[in-house]
Specification:
10 helices; Homeodomain-like_sf; Tetracycline Repressor, domain 2; 76% helix; Arc Repressor Mutant, subunit A; 2 domains
Length: 197
Amino acid sequence: MDKEHTQGTSSPKSEATKQLLSEISYQLFKERGFAQVGVRDIAAKAGMTTGAFYYYFKSKADILNHHAKMRARWLFHQVPGMLEGLSPLEKIRQFLGSYLCEVFLDEGWELCESRMFSRYYDKRESSGLASTVRLYCEEAKEQGLLIPDCDVDQMASDLVLACRGVEYDWCLRHGGYDIHQRMFRLVDMVLSHYKKS
């Protein structure tokens, strides 16, 4: 059985081991920094061989991808239910200013930076973010909350761009400011351009 096939194995025991490796890796990444942690360090902390590690993950970057998938499940499947009952514009504000920022804070600025610039990073998270934001923009347009000629694709794109800019700047400044506050401010600036006055 080749490595790629075995990595697709998803028995409960396999998934539990994969999750444990992910948690151990993130703990080490936060303590020492992504670049300073090797596969051997992760395997040793987990009490396994490096060969066993490679049964579950192809690389350290693959762990970032796995962690991103777990975060995406929460962000794109559970959080929208938590926003039920809010206006579409408030859904956008809370989704980006509260919940997305919690993902960044959970990672910490160093891991955010490593994830953003990893050439192996799976970019699917960005398309999920754009789709969710676009859905809320469409709801706002249908409810007449936006200017009549509003292009919801452009609006969603502008909001995602603002979020990525805040994430990038927050990393450059080593997490040196309240990311929630900055995100809300920039999201509100974008929304003010599109919403009816």
